[in-house]
Amino acid sequence: MIFSLNLAKPLGRLGYLANLVFFSVVFSAFAWGAHYLMTVKLPESGAHHEAEVAAQTAYATSLAKAKKAAAGKALSAEETAKLKAEATEVGKKKVEEAHHHASATWAPFEIFLLILVAIFFGGYASVATQRRMNDAGLHGALWLTVGHVGTWGIASFISFLPYFMAAGTTLTWLTATSVAGVMILPLLFLGAGKGDSHDAHGH
């Protein structure tokens, strides 16, 4: 069975690759969903509400001042439209300010969610890595270290990719993650075991 949490089940090279691709797609979707929720959805919902309140307050204040200055005379349509336009501009500025503030407020929660994604991603991928090493006969402290460090490195990068892209540090972290990719590369080529024959027969 290709997807299993049972470490005793063999996992061939193609099966291992399938596991990595599947987990990458699934947990990448979770990471981008968390990023969107914390940087767009939640901040914008609060920002638009604050902007609406600010615009209404600005319009009411400006209208009261204009009526006082007009000494009780009715305001023209042009004057009223101008006040509404000014209030709208106040609202737009408030949206930007509120969104920036809300993004800063929700940022720690985004990090927390991405850490959870990385933990689950790394955990499932580590099971696949261990099954692959067991099947290939790659034992010892060196293989354990290389295989699992590489797995967690890739899982962490994919999980935090939305954050890296937003911060403009993708290339920096990609360089470091390429080392992790090299670390697990032998698992895709070395040690054909029972899992490879299972993969070949579609089991």
Topology readout:
Elements: H1 13-69, H2 77-136, H3 141-167, H4 170-184, H5 194-200
Helix pairs in contact: 1-2, 1-3, 2-3, 3-4
Please give a structural write-up.
By secondary structure, the chain is mainly alpha-helical. It has one domain. Helix content is 82%, strand content 0%. The chain is built from 5 helices and no strands. Helix 3 packs antiparallel against helix 4. The termini are close together. The C terminus is likely disordered.
Mind describing the biggest β-sheet?
none
Q: Which structural class do you get from the secondary structure elements?
A: mainly alpha
Query: Overall mean pLDDT score?
Result: 81
| Element-level helix/strand string | HHHHH
Question: DSSP strand (E) fraction?
Answer: under 5%
Number of helices: 5
The rounded Rg comes to 28 Å
Q: Specify the helix fraction band.
A: over 70%
- Summed up, the domain count is 1
Question: What's this entry about, in short?
Answer:
With 203 residues, the protein is mainly alpha-helical.
Features:
203 residues; mainly alpha; rod-shaped
